[in-house]
């Protein structure tokens, strides 16, 4: 019996090889496939410098807008594999089909981006020169907060988004961070 990872890899390869897959969607699928198939998904350390796992993907001199675009493509792909991108239309583009569905009885590993409610919308912004902000909007209050405190599910979603952002970043004593990242969350109707 094939594992969930095997099915996910097959779906990603089908998405990459499909003739109607757009260039941005294909690139995001390739990055996700690389993350799954590469065992070194951690921060790379050289001397006192640290580089995120995907630091080299956008290129050494990539603009902040390009990095934000790649982050939004990664979020869209994670949601696309379940049928909902969760991104605003101007960010996510038009997806013509959804990669294969889960079969009955197949074990599915938890994924905070995939398991988040479908009503949640993600927007990746670059409001200033050295910063990327992921806005998580329309979070259902029953899912995101309990007695005025964030639920573990919302904290896990925020942590996953921060980890995704930091994968494109670098830091060290003789170099500054490539960008400052943050996540802003609001409930539905706020």
Could you explain the architecture of this structure?
- This protein has 190 residues and is α+β, with helices and mostly antiparallel strands.
- The chain is built from 7 helices and 8 strands.
- The protein has helices at 4-17, 23-37, 64-80, 89-92, 112-115, 141-144, 152-166; strands at 44-46, 49-51, 121-128, 131-139, 145-146, 149-150, 170-171, 180-187.
- The strands form 3 sheets. A 3-stranded antiparallel sheet has the order 1-2-7, with no helix packed on it.
- The longest helix is centred in the middle third of the chain and has 17 residues, at 64-80.
Distance between the termini: 46 Å
Give the strand tally.
8
Largest sheet: spatial strand order: 1-2-7
Uncertain ranges = 88-102
The major beta sheet can be summarized as: 3 strands, antiparallel
